[in-house]
Structure formats: structure tokens, C-alpha cells
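Database export, one record per block. Field names are fixed; values are copied verbatim from the stored entry.
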Amino acid sequence: MTIRVAVAGATGKMGQLAVRLIEEADDLELHAALDSRSSLDLMLGADVALDVTHPGASAQIVEFAAGAGIPIVVGTSGWSSDRISDISAFVRGHADAGPVLFIPNFSIGSVLGSAFAALAAPYFDSIEIVEAHHAGKVDSPSGTAVRTAELIGDARGESGPVAAPHADQRARGQLVSGVPVHSLRLAGIAAEQRVVFGGDGETLTITHSTLSSSSYEAGILLALRSAPAASGVTVGLDSLLDPGLPGTPR
């Protein structure tokens, strides 16, 4: 079966990458390529929509697709757990709503890095995240950093909140799920995230660096192929991977 895909944000870097992957895949077909001036009605009739726009436009696109019963993969950053909860409530309240897959990062390596951070989280009380992206990225913290911090907060459970001294000082970073997150926006950088754990007499750093946009290709294809069979709201590429065999679709 061929999956017809509508891409919102098709003229951006991620959108252009997605369009190329769709056109090269035997089981995918480009249904529509939307830019900022396009009517969202062009998405109608698609089997899957992909949102790779910007935080200011994403909510309207997601609500339109879900309301029209179109499964949508959301690659746009800036979606916090509170905003996702609002979409979850909308989907639960409409029996014919399309499923929504929020993918903060399409890189399988990045997903694994966040999972490793969650694994280490209960063993360290001092944890901070430093994320760096290109100067043109308009949002901070990144969606990946937000997702990582939320996973760390969940993983600590009975361990309690992370130690974040002087959190009232702006230079200490933004607290996300109690974890200080520091955002760098610099020329010469694609994307990088470091999660630093501090313990007695030691530190542990989990780093993921994006060297090329090709690192997103496998994740984009996995999400698009998984979306038609999805239900409700899904968060994270990790939910589409077999936990025993990383990188293998369920």
C-alpha cells in the first residue's frame, strides 16, 4: 500500500529532506507540499501529514489534521508536556480524530542518548542539560532537551527532584521538570546535546552530536510509515522502536 503524505513546511530544511525521502521511497507518495501561504485544505485526502514548520504555526496545523481525521507526525519543536496534554484531551474527546505522533528528534542516536540519560537519572542528584543548535533556531530549549528533562524527571520517581542550586538566577538555565537546561545558539553548529551528571568525585556526560541531516532520515521514514496504524497521542521516536532491538520497527 502506498502512503500519501502531506508535508507542511515543505520549503524548510527538514521539509525539503522529507520531500526527497518521500519521492525516493517506493511505499510513499507526496500528496501535497505546503508552505506558509498554503491552505491547510491541501492536506485533505492524505494518509499522513508531517508538520515541520515553526512553533507559532504548529498548533493550528496539528489541530486541523487531527480534526480532519488525518494522522499527523509532528517534528516541530516547542511542544511542552502541557501543550501535548491539550492535544491529548482534544483527541480523546473526538472519536474520529486522527492520531498525533510528537517526535522531538528524528535521530535514533539522539533518542538513545535521552534513554541512557533517563537510565542514569536515579543515581545522580546533580543533573544539567546543555543543548546547542544553529543560530537560526527560533525556540529554546529545544524539543529534544525538553523531552530529555521530562524523561529524567519521570525516571527519578521516588528519588525526588534534581538538585538545582540558585535556580532563581537566570544564568542557571531554564528549569524543565526541575532540570536546568542551558541553550546555545551559535553559527557553525548543527545540533548537540550534553547531559551532565555530577556525583561524589565523578561526573558522567552523555553527548549526542548531529553531524549531518542524514541522521534524521531513518527516523522520518519510520514515523511516516508508523502513523497510519497509530492511535491517540504518541510522544517520542522511542515509542516506535522495539525496546529489545533498537532501530527495529515494532
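Remark 1: The chain has six helices and 13 strands.
Remark 2: Residues 143-156 form the longest helix (14 residues).
End of record.
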